[in-house]
Design brief:
It is a single chain. By secondary structure, the protein is α/β, with parallel strands linked by helices. It folds into two domains: 172 residues, Glycogen Phosphorylase B (Rossmann fold, 3-Layer(aba) Sandwich), CATH 3.40.50.2000; 182 residues, Rossmann fold. It is built from 14 helices and 13 strands. It has a seven-stranded parallel sheet with strand order 3-2-1-4-5-6-7, sandwiched between helices. Helix 6 runs parallel beside helix 9 and helix 7 packs across helix 12. The model has no long low-confidence stretch (mean pLDDT 94).
Length: 362
């Protein structure tokens, strides 16, 4: 049988892309699962198949095969394609970001986000199985009229990153050039992630509390206008110890995680938030904000600020997390317990059973 997957866009390091590739492997040997993308980074050419090539595969059984659509943004061409296909449809909802923060930087991208929820309504009658990777995401689908939504935690094989050998050159550079504590953010530099909030908080921290602190923002620059605004903010505030590291390899990310003293995020919209699990895997205390699915992901493992707390409150929280050893130890221990709830062996089996179970009902 085939359980093929479709994503609108695939890029290295993207959580949804990684999840789709993980699903492809865990369905073996019971089902073949290629990952098709409407847009994809050429660096993934050996892993991703262009959506235009879908259908040119011998032996497909339309009465039994599944088509799994990962939803995180709209794309009319993809929705139209899915609606015309005869395979049984599975929707996996990773959440669609609100469009408002994107509109000043890329109105076209903002339009695709708005279109995504309309497309979900069009796809709803075709879906035989609807899965969400958090209860927050499931609630959004129910609000859109989906009656039956199952929640399965995303497969986050953070041990793979933890066991990756760190990039030696970067590790040495971090050791010699970052003499003070390192505060780390990992995630795409998109407006709703609020890297600008982190930079403002760091400005307060480094000016009034910890002059030797360092801030490193790791993540791809998906919107050049926003990334440019962040760089201008850093320069205008004269933050010599703040760095936009851009997209990095897995060994480089491992080096950053091992050197970091604190993980932070100011994101205001997350359907899950895998980087929090990665921080737990590296025994990093973390600070986040009380928005969307972040409290659900974090549990009691991190310091979660209220949504209306500003950068000054975040700066004070960072100072405490960097200096209060009993608090750090408590949060690290809680992180280990929380991470156990997302044991890959258990979550992988749950996804296998959900997808293969539906396929075998034919």
């Amino acid at each position: 049988m085939r359980i093929d997957q479709v994503v609108v866009s695939a890029s290295p390091g993207d959580a949804i892309t990684n999840f789709a590739l993980t699903l492809r492997q865990l369905l073996l040997p019971d089902a073949r699962s290629d990952v098709f993308a409407y847009y994809y980074d050429e660096r993934l050419a050996s892993e991703i198949v262009p959506l235009s090539e879908y259908g040119a595969r011998p032996g497909a059984r339309k009465d039994r095969d599944l088509l799994v659509l990962h939803v995180s943004i709209g794309e009319p061409a993809v929705a139209d394609f899915v609606l015309k296909r005869p395979e049984r449809l599975v929707i996996i909802y990773h959440n669609i970001s609100p469009s408002e923060p994107f509109r000043p930087y890329d109105p076209g991208f903002a339009d695709l986000l708005d279109a995504g929820r309309d497309e979900l309504k069009r796809l709803r009658p075709r879906a035989e199985l609807v899965l969400a990777d958090s209860e927050y995401n499931a609630c959004e689908l129910r609000d859109l009229g989906f009656e039956q939504v199952d929640v399965l935690p995303i497969v986050a094989n953070v041990e793979d990153l933890r066991d990756t050998e760190a990039d030696a050159a970067l590790a040495e550079r971090l050791r010699t050039h970052h003499d003070g504590p390192v505060i780390l953010f990992v995630g795409q530099l998109l407006p709703h992630k609020r890297a600008d909030f982190l930079i403002e908080a760091f400005h307060i921290l480094s000016t009034y509390r910890m002059r030797d602190a360092n801030l490193v923002l790791v993540g791809s620059h998906r919107l050049p206008g926003y990334a440019g605004a962040l760089q201008s903010q850093i320069e205008e505030l004269h933050l010599d110890r703040a760095t936009l590291a851009g997209s990095v390899s897995k060994p480089m990310l491992a080096a950053y995680m091992r050197r970091a003293d604190l993980f932070v995020t100011a994101s205001e919209h997350e359907g899950f938030c895998v980087p929090l699990l990665e921080a737990m895997a590296f025994d990093l205390p973390f600070q986040a904000r009380r928005f969307t699915a972040i409290p659900e992901t974090a549990g009691d493992a991190g310091l979660i600020l209220d949504a209306d707390d500003g950068p000054a409150v975040a700066a004070e929280a960072w100072a405490q997390l960097l200096t209060d050893e009993p608090l750090r130890k408590t949060l690290v221990e809680r992180g280990r317990v929380r991470l156990a709830a997302f044991e890959p062996a258990v979550t992988k089996q749950a996804w296998r059973q959900a997808l293969l179970g539906l396929a075998r009902l034919a």
